[in-house]
Amino acid sequence: MARGHRFHLDRAGHSVTVQTGARSGDVELLVDGKVVDFRRGRRTGVTVLAAELPDDPPQPFTVHVHPSKEAGDVPVCVMETDGDRVPVPYSPLTARHSGPPTTGIRVRPLRWLRRVLRRRSRKV
Fold first, then answer.
1. Is 13 left (phi over 0), alpha (psi -120 to 50) or beta?
2. Which residues contact 93 (CB under 8 A, 6 or more apart)?
3. Per-residue pLDDT for 68 more than 90?
4. Region 49-74: what's the mean pLDDT?
């Protein structure tokens, strides 16, 4: 687990997210955007997190995160509830293209601002 990873699953109308730390290997479990469990990460072995889905009655579940040599640098995340094991899909933290959308128009705000100030100073 060399860099941070995020896994996300919608279950029973609730958002379940697992995030691993960048270099520390810390793992946190979020339900509906709130941190419900946190573990100091281990670079080897399985990290187990436990929580409940806030239903009536609450539904307990566990999440298992462990490194995988087959998946490269991405760990494997599995959610276990009521005896069912469901893989939690990987959801990258950033998109591959991490820049502003290009429209073909070059924007130079500093150059524009200087030009406006020069024109105003000439009029004064």
1. left
2. 4, 5, 6
3. no
4. 86
Domain ranges for the chain, please list them. Answer: 5-94
* Record: fold of 5-94: Lipocalin (2.40.128)
Phi, psi at residue 107, to the nearest 5°? -105, 125
Query: pLDDT tens across 85-97, in order?
Result: 999 998 876 655 5
Give Cβ neighbours of residue 49 (< 8 Å, ≥ 6 apart): 18, 27, 28, 29, 37, 38, 39, 62, 63, 65
As given in the structure block, the two tokens for residue 55 are 């239903």
pLDDT of residue 2: 47
Q: Both tokens of residue 120?
A: 């105003």
